[in-house]
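Final report, closing paragraph on structural work. Over the funding period we assembled a curated collection of sequence-structure pairs, and we close with a single example.
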Amino acid sequence: MVWHLNLYTMGLNLNECSIRLFIRLRLMRLNARVEQNKEVTILNSQIENNFKYHPTKDGQPQTYENIRNKAKEFAYIGTGCILGECFNR
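Its predicted structure, as stored:
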């Protein structure tokens, strides 16, 4: 393996057990990088999907219009409460 050559060319005097441990740790590190790359790929695909245009389905525009109107009404009520007019309505 390449790691054997690297260890020997570095002038390290390692026994077989140490070399096996080194290789095992190196493989664990490489596997961790592979898993991290998979997670990044999944996150990137989720980001792409979240910011992709999705055409509306039947009834969605009216539903979201109702949600926006209720949110606006709630915002006005909240603003009134902050100004001390909460109980005057």
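The two ends are 79 Å apart (CA to CA). The mean pLDDT is 80. We thank the funder for supporting this effort.
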